[in-house]
Amino acid sequence: MPHTIEKDFSYTFHTKTTNSTLNVPITVPMHNDSKEFVARLTQVHNLPCFVHQDLESKLDGFVSKETSQLYDKNANEAVEKVRNGEIDVNDLVKQWLPAYCQELKMYAKPHQLSNDERFAEVYHKLIHSPALETLLNLEHEYSLGVERVTKERDRDLQHLQDKQRADMDEALKSVGSVYKDEDINLLAQKQFENTQIVEGKWTSELRTLHEQQKVEYREWVFQVHEDSQGKAPLPPYVQRLRSLSSVLPDADVEERQAHVSRLEESFTIHLGAQMKTTHNLRLLCTDVLDLCRHKPHTIGGLVIPQPQRLQTAMSLYSNNLCGLVLLADNRLNSYTGIKQKFAQICDSSTDFHFPTLDHQFQVIEEQLPKAADVKAKKKGSSDEVDQLSLHSSTSSSSDEKEKVGEKKLHSGDFYLTKHSNLSEVHVVFHVVTDDNLRTSDITSRHPVILSIRNIIKLCFRYDIHTLTVPLLLTHEMSEEMTISWCMKRAELMFKCVKGFMIEMATYSSQESRTIQFLVPRGLSEELFHQISNMIPTIFRLSNPLVVKSN
Amino acid sequence: MPALGSADFGVRTFYAASHPNDKCGPNGLPLTPNSIKILGRFQYLSALSHPKLCQYIDISKTKHECMIVISEHHRTCLREKIKIENSLSETQIANIGFQILDGLTYLHEKKVVHRNLSLDNILIDKQGNIKLSEYGLYYMTDYGADVSFPIGLPRYMPPEVLCSGPVKVDEDTGHCVQPTSGPKADVWTFGVILLELILGKEIWAGQGIEEVLMKIIELIKSDMSALDHLCQDPILGEKLKGFSKEMWDVLRLCLAVSSSKRASSAELKQHPLFRYVREFTVAHKKEFSMFTTELRCADLELPTYEQTIANEFSDDHLSQRSMQEVYYLWRLAGGDLDSVLKKAGMSKTRPPVHLLPCYGILAGDVFGQDRDYAELLNNTVITLSQEQLRFRLRDIPSTAFYPLLEDELKSPEPQQLPTSPSYGEMTSSATLPLVIREKDIEYQFHRIILYERLLSAYPFKRPYIWREARIDVPPLVRANVWAALLEVEGDVEGLYTSIDKETPTATDRQIEVDIPRCHQYHELLSSPTAHVKFKRVLKAWVLSNPQYVYWQGLDSLCAPFLALSFNNEAVAFACMNAFISKYLHKFFMRDNSAVIQEYLAVFSHLIAFHDPELSNHLEGIGFIPDLYAIPWFLTMYAHVFPLHKIVHLWDTLLLGNSSFPLCIGVSILQQLRDRLLSFGFNECILLFSDMPEIDIERCVQDSIKFFCSTPKSASYRQHARPLAQKNSTERPNISYYSRDYHELPQTDLSMEPMSIEELKSEKCPRISAEDLIELGELAGSASSRSPTKKRQNSKPMILILDVRHHEDFKRGTLQGSINIPFQTAFSPEGDLNPCPAVHVLNSRRNQVIVVVGNRGRNAANFANELVRLGYSRVCVLHKGIDVFRTTDLITLPPADL
């Protein structure tokens, strides 16, 4: 069933001496005005001007007749297919049903708010009300509770470890005399089991505590919300809250400033050739986990919540989220390295809004087979040409490999976790990296850089307005990171991020974004300034405001 | 656009389907988002206008592919009518049916298929007329390909639509796979609606989608005619019995399963059933459009006495204004669509943190994301309240709606221009910054009404339009005002139609490469519809100017005109053509180097004239205009600035002559002056590689200032457009400056062409003897045409510096000149040797210094030295003192003291 069809149009006109006939193929339906077509015909075939009007009306008639016939033909063909059973009626209805039920509000099932979403709504309301301070204080109280347990756990484990070491030392001394090698092994195994039991005990205790706190907290929030709904002028809870909050002593200036010690520099930049959009860049030198960790904040000896908490909590359900890129290896767990540290921070207080890290990992894992399918398909389509030239045996073996690695993460993939209990971050993108990031000659086509492009795209799509990116694509300083290595990497990243930002800003609104470039702690101050001096050469800074004396 | 009348504004939203991740189109560029495509296609709909259709007014796109459509709306719909009246008589049904057909026929003529007809979107206005609404959804979404929801409700689905299944989108082209619906699809639906009118209720009410679809399939499969099959239903059969044969016939013609047996809407309109209604219909009056050869009075019927009375005594003057205008004012009155939608609970509600995916792969696909239910199609219409607008306009007297445009040519001073009727109270507002004026509803209201009246009297009222444009141009009427300022006249459409824009030519490829890079941040211009229009207009220009070739930059020049006259390519083309021939004469020749070189040389002269310090610095580091200014002039800054700034710049540029763009260049440099002075060559290159933000209003003000303090002959160019043949006396001689120098008669005292080498060797511009006489008031001050000299008794703005030998000077010179002989003027260090004349020179630094010498190069060299020393506004008398020999202006200087 064609959308268009070519038809021959013939036109005859008479003059005193001759009969002239014009034959032209015409595509119907015609896209442009028939007047224009007539003008073209007149020009090309050098037609006399007196046939103009006649030709136009004839052409109009012809086109509308043929167009209508084309539509009729297409329509009849479609109907005929159903009439003669070529298309199954039930199939047809089955196709239409979801089209209506899933896309039109009037036919769709009303959307049921999940428990989490209901909580989110209530919380968002409360956090923008006078209850805010109490809410935060309560959260803080809870986190202190968790901290106590963690401290106890650490002490307990430490104690156990000390004891075990002593035992082991003791045992080792008498190897050969009292104990045999097997005994030592036995002891080691026993110790290990013990440790596991103790750890397990603490983990479950902590988990129970988290669960308990979460339930309590949510109940409390709903309760307060209900209270506030009821009475009109000054609901009692406000007073209750007021009295609670007034207990806190005011902060001294010194205490407030005590912890601000990270190196940072901010820039306002313009992107775009003609239409400029304004964005903010920040270069900061600190440990990546510092953006997650709540620093102990004491006022008059009391540990109180950090001011950043407030901002993070208030924007959690808003259209202004903060994201962080964390580099990870290709295993979806939190047993080693920075992943472990990150998990510890996540566990150091209860997440009242989102599932635990482990649980989120499970959900991610469920997505992996789906992703593997898509990958295989993409690979298949792009390799199709290659596959044809290859022997069938090699291609099947690669297929098998793909199946084995079904659940594997590849370099450049990322998984995403959401948190409500981190200091300056709501969303963490865990980017899967590999070792060749350490070499100095990576290009803009490196999987990790492409992954950052995907992440920036996601940020534009989901209102993540602040994104923190490790500028050097590493979280720690290492030996191969010479000055020239760092400068080269920084330049590459700046340029790539600039390109991605320009790309994503096309067609989207003029909202401004903030990108924080993070360099690892331990970078020399001099190098930091060199990197920051590079920004004005790569990005167009907004016009400096020049203050003149007169 | 039609007048507002009793209509409301209705707002609807829907979501465009988002593309799968990172797909690229056949041209290798990323796919255009569907929302942008819709935006482009919508424009055609807003140009449709018919009394039986709800006018489309505006569309906008918010985040995440959400489209907001604003259209005319009425509060009653057909569903409510049948609910109230229960059963309608045959006459009533015929009346309603005819009106629906009237609207449908118009749509079908315009190649738009409704596909969405239902009891809910057939509206009824206060006078009881039928108004179809939502008729553009199928068209603007590229026949359903750009959205994920099906268009049209199940019970109205024509057999062929049902049989083709839901729209499938071709992955490569982005269009739908199935054939699109023809106009006869609407006729089926029309039949179903007639049945519902007869029934007095919805057909198959209370049945689910599946059942309804099965019913239609039964109709398709049945061997009986669809109508007979339906009549098996006892209730319907009973109801139908009471209706005439003609009604039966119409129903049969509509409800034919086979499309070829179905009548078309135009045929149905002629059906005997409607003969009585037909007799009483009045032809649809054409609205005013500026450049058309169609007679406005073709269907004119003089209003009856009743109509006049009704109009005269209506207090609601706002309802007489066009919808577009009222909507524009509504927005100025603080109308904000976002907040309206938010209030109605129609904006996105789920927080993004809940929707986020949890896993993404390298290829860019993401997994685990949640869908926002707000994206489902919601048929709710929100009416915009006009309360606030009417409140804001409450104090405006009725007379302000109909300002008088009296011809004031009879006033004592015939040379003076008519004063603006909106002048009185508006003068104070007129001095506010432009951005504020554009947001001031009352100010805009007066300006729009005034312009609208002036424009409908174009070209007769052109002097007035010119006059008003010197104050400002309201954004709403800018397209037509520009056309008026560019003196576009005649059968523009006919001319445009006659150009063959389809046949491939050699420049097509370059045009196709350039268009997707031209002002693509602009939503409208980035749409495929715009790309097609771009290409057509550009091709038309290239074809109609065979002496020129396509140069890159032409696309940028086209952009502002296309963006303004999007629905009228012919006007965009005519404006662009007029603009280029006025400001860019000869710039698009195959070999344009001579023209551009001359332009740049004059530009450097002007920099030296106004800012010698900057000129010296730039020359010192070798940063010559060739390196940065060519794209400025070749595109008249359209390549350098975003569209919203270009329009403000061009508002003024269009009033000036062809030298005005040079002054804009100088004022841009002025804004960057501090930075340029501190920069070396590389930094300067870097600075201009990506133009920094420029304050455009300041830039405009500065360029006017520069323009007015530059003698006209200083910007003389031999390649400028020669004197136009046509007699343009109808344009007033508004000021000395708005005329091109080249359009004035040439005499011995005028400028003459100079070679490029000569131009380049001199740092300063030359002034013609004519200008010197005029500006120096050598022939008395009465004849001055210059607006720069405001007070009659002020000192002349010129200081004449005679650099000939003292003896020559003694023998005769121009009145009021001082003498510094070139030979003795400079010390070995290059400074001026102090003497009384130098003292005079230093004390009158803000005046234009005209260096007068003999025919040799002394004067020019002297002037070069003055520039080096930082003297501003230095120029050289063209052809030296000898040129005055024939005049009686040479006198003996007063004796030395």
UniProtKB/TrEMBL annotation, chain A:
Biased composition (Low complexity): 388-397
Protein name, entry field: Uncharacterized protein
GO cellular component: cytoplasm
Superkingdom to which the source organism belongs: Eukaryota
PANTHER family, per database record: PROTEIN C12ORF4
InterPro entries (UniProt xref): Fy-3
Region (Disordered): 375-404
TrEMBL record, chain B:
Taxonomic superkingdom: Eukaryota
GO CC, alphabetical: cytoplasm
Pfam families listed in its UniProt record: Pkinase, RabGAP-TBC, Rhodanese
InterPro entries: Kinase-like_dom_sf, Prot_kinase_dom, Rab-GAP-TBC_dom, Rab-GAP_TBC_sf, Rhodanese-like_dom, Rhodanese-like_dom_sf, STE20/SPS1-PAK
Gene3D superfamilies cross-referenced by the UniProt entry: putative rabgap domain of human tbc1 domain family member 14 like domains (1.10.8.270), Rhodanese-like domain (3.40.250.10), Transferase(Phosphotransferase) domain 1 (1.10.510.10), Ypt/Rab-GAP domain of gyp1p, domain 3 (1.10.472.80)
Domain Rab-GAP TBC residue range list: 472-657
Keywords annotated in UniProt: ATP-binding, Nucleotide-binding
PANTHER family found in the cross-reference section: STERILE20-LIKE KINASE, ISOFORM B-RELATED
UniProt-recorded name of the protein: TBC domain-containing protein kinase-like protein
